[in-house]
Structure formats: C-alpha cells, structure tokens
Amino acid sequence: MATTSAVNGSNLMSQLGAGSGVDTKTLAESLVSAEKQPQSDAINSRITKTQSRISGLSAVMLSMDTLKTAFKAVDDPSDFSALSIANTNTSALSATATAGKVAATGSRTIEISQLASAQRNISGGFAASDSALNGGKAFSLRLSVNGASASSIRVTAANATPSGIVSAINKSNLGVTAQLINTNDGSATPYKIILTGTSGASNAFTMSSDDGTGLGEQQQLTFSAATTSGNISVQGVLVGLTAGDSAATVAAKVKATLDANTFITGTPGRSTSVSGDGSLLITYAGADGDVSAPSWGDVGATGVTATYATTRAPGTGATVSSVDFSSKTLSAADAVLKVDGLQLKRSSNVITDAISGVTLNLTGTTTSAATLDLTRDTSKVKANVQGLVKAFNDALSDFKILGGEKNKKDEADVYSGSLQNDATLSLLKSQLRSMFTDNSSTPGSKVKAMRDIGVTIQKDGTLELDETKFDSALASNFTDVVTMFTADKENKGTTGVAKRGLAGDAVKRLSDMMSSTGLIMNQTNSSNTQLARYKNDLTKLEIRMEAVLARYTTMFANMDKIVGNANSMRTYLTNQFDAMSGSSG
Fold this sequence. Notes:
- By secondary structure, the chain is an alpha+beta fold.
- The longest helix is centred in the C-terminal third of the chain and has 66 residues.
- The radius of gyration is 46 Å and the shape is flat.
- It has four domains: 251 residues; 74 residues, no CATH class; 106 residues, Immunoglobulin-like; 95 residues, Alpha-Beta Complex (Baseplate Structural Protein Gp11, Chain: A, domain 3), CATH 3.90.1160.10.
- A hairpin with a 5-residue loop joins strand 23 and strand 24.
- The strands form seven sheets. The protein has a five-stranded antiparallel sheet with strand order 1-22-3-18-19, with no helix packed on it. A four-stranded antiparallel sheet has the order 7-8-4-17, with helices on one face. Strands 13-14-10-16 form a four-stranded antiparallel sheet.
- The protein is built from ten helices and 24 strands.
C-alpha cells in the first residue's frame, strides 16, 4: 500500500508538473467528503432514530388517551345508573334514575293525594305600568315568610310605579317573585302584579306596604381610637384615618364622609349625628323600613373597632294607596304521597329521596296506587367494560408494533420498531397491566378486582372478559361492582390523594403519566433535547468541514503555483540549452 501511495503521489506530481490541468477544487472536495461522510452518516442515523422514538412516544400517548377514555366510561356511579322503569300511571307521575346514584330494583307503589304548590297572590289594578304610586315618593314593602319577622323591600321615589315594585321584589331575592300582567279586562285598571312564592307549606307569605310616614330606624356605631393611619369602610364608603385619631375624631370623620356620599345625599330623610363618646348615629328614612346592620370593616388595619346597636326600631306608616296584595289565588302546600304504604310530605313535586336512586316528578293525584317496576339495564355497563378490555388489548398490540422490528417494506412507516428495546415501553406495559390486575382501592365485600367480574389476562398478555361471570357479578353483587370501580363518588377529578376506585385511580394515573411533567412527556422532552444536540453536532461538522475544504483549496492552489513556476523554469532552461547546442553546431 505504501508503494502504491508513493506511485500515485509521483503520478500526481508528474501530472501537475506536466501542466495537465488537474482540477484541484474537485480534488479538495473529494478529500473533504471522504472525511465528512462517515461522521455525517453517524449523526444522521442518531437523528433518524431519535425522531422515530418521538413518533413512537406520540403513538403511546394516543393509546393511553384511548385507554383513559375507556376507564372514564366506568369511573362514576352515574355510568352504572341506567334503569328501565315501567310506570302504570304516567299522567300522575314520571320517574327517572337519579344521576350519580345506584337505584334499588324491584316493584314500588305510589299514591299521591296532594301536589305541592306555591302561594300566589294578586294585587289590585293599576291604570298603567308606570302609574305614579305614593305620590311619587319612596316607600317600602314588608315581606314575611312562614310567619317570620318581616323583611323590608325599598321602592325608591324614581321607581314608585307598578313596574318599579316588580323590579324591587325580584332584585331582593327573598323567595317571592313578581310579574306585571296586563289583563286587558276592559277596566280602567287592567295592570296587576302577581306574586309567586316557593312551593311548600313552610313558604307561605304575606306582603304589605308602608308609605314611609313612620319614624325611620336609628342605628348606632361606636368606634375606638385609631392606632395606625389607613382606611376603614362604613356602608361601603372608605374613610381615611390618621394614627392617634380619638374615638370622637373617628366618628366625626365617618360622619363627614357619609354626609358627602350618596348613601346620605341620595335618599331624602337620612341623616347622621355624632356624640362625644365616639358614637355615630345613623337615622334612616321612614321609607327605608327595617334596615340590616350597617356594614363596616377595618380594611386598612388602623386598629379601630366598632360596636353596633339599633337604638330605634322603624315606625309603621300608612298603607300605600292601591298597593294591596291580600288577594290569594293559590295557597302554599306540601306534596302528600305514600310510597309502599309509608306517607311522606315534601315541599316540592320533584322528590329525590323517596326511592333510592330514583327521582319522582309528581304531576297529578291518583285514585289508586301507581306501580313502578324498576329493572336495571346493564347492557351499557357491559359494553363499556368490553370497550375497556378492547382498549387495553389495542394498546398492547400498538406496543408490540412499536417495540418490534422495523417495517423495511414501508419506508414511510415511522412507528414500527421506533421503541425497540426501549425501557420506557416495558415500564408502561407493566404499569398498565397493574391497573387491571391490582385490587381496587375501594373493594366491595365480594368484588375486589376486575378478576372478580370475569376480566383475566391470557398467556399472550391480552385481556379477556368472561361474559357469563360478568353477568353473574352484576346480578348478584351490583353495588359491589359499582364500589369497586367508582368508590361511590361522582366527578372525582384527578388531583389529591383520595381513593377513587379502580377506574378512578386508573384515570388519575393515566392523567399523571400523560401530563406535562409525566413519564411520557419527560421522555419526549429528553428525546427532543437529544435531537437538538444531534442537529447542532451536524451543524458543527458542516462548519468544521468547510474550514478543512478551505485549507485544502489553499494548499492545492499553492502547490499548483509552485509546479507552475517549476514548469516555467524547466521550459526556460530547456530553451537555453537548446540555444547553446545550436550555436555550437
């Protein structure tokens, strides 16, 4: 080999010296390519393998997401609540399975003697929706529910109209709603207000009016001194205090601030006064009615404290002319029914606690007992468990392709063999298998794991459902099956460490594994980091080879120049010798 190289080098120099026009650029590029190609091929091989691994991990993510969806189909009690209900009196009631509850099967009798109702009162008539009431002055309504102390609903002067009454009642959210109706009865006062309470005997109500001519309520706030500068809040108004303000000064500052605020200026009849002991007296207008305790807070940590007392209860004025709700068209009543002979009273016609797992909607009374035949529809549950088994088997099949040999017949196939000999794939298989083989975190007394309902692992690692055993488990131990899968809890979420049942725990584990900080994304991120490093190595190789090419090009150019000079000298000397020989002859 040394002899050959010497000969080749001699031939090269001979050709260069002969002025043969050797392409030094191509020669340099060939030398660089011979050095670069093996390194480039090695790096590109690593890039291809890493890209393939990333593709494989994305396929794993898809398989696990499909499995998670299958587990979610059996992780809530409501997934098992499908119920077939035969009802002999659909005109008097309807019955449906209660979401999140497991119904008891069997035959139940229902007798309904009275429906629940909400009290309904109607006002006297008004000429128009915007007819002025109480002479255009503010007034109050007094609402008492079930005989309790009356609550006041203020109707401002600007809204002292029938429509203003309706708006004030509805905004109060005190359990009674109002609606203004134009009866078109041909009278001079066709507009009437309908009041509707909440159903149930305990929600009976009375509504009266007060024209505000009685004395207004008085409330006293007694403050302490301020130890730190900052703000306090009284009735939603901020009051600035300075450290060292005495109780009297605090009260005076509160008075000055409230007097300048719409809390006082916006309501005729309201006023404030202070006393030397640091107390503030708020006098309300008669139309304010019974007022709740004033709101206050030491929002700026000033050290101020306050005590509250009602020093004068609101007086009673006269009834507002034409505002009368004494006409009752419907009384509040409870639903009265018998379930299997046991009498029940409920405030609503929608009853969820008479039959476990069943919601009754009463629509009429019965003359004879209605019968509900409750049978459980397990076809959906069975289909969901079959889907779960299939999801696992499909995942196992996908993993086999990912961890197997590369499909050399299809160059576009980036998945086959992408995770061959990958420890992550083996770990995932083991973890997924345990979700099906381990005992539930909330086992039933007789059903503790999926093997107890006929789900077993075959020799090839796939799952199989024994339908006969599954049907038997549902027939004999249905509530155990639900507990085993769901922990008898609805909408459990995926945070925290609470026991969620076999399916709920699997959903959480799969969510954790697929999260941005989970196993799969950690491996994907690691591969992406490697990929970036390999691409950077390829860039560095390109830069280094460009420098080598430049060096070779310069070196060969200099060599070519030396050979050219030598050829010129040889030509010159040859000519000189030829001339000397000619002259001597």
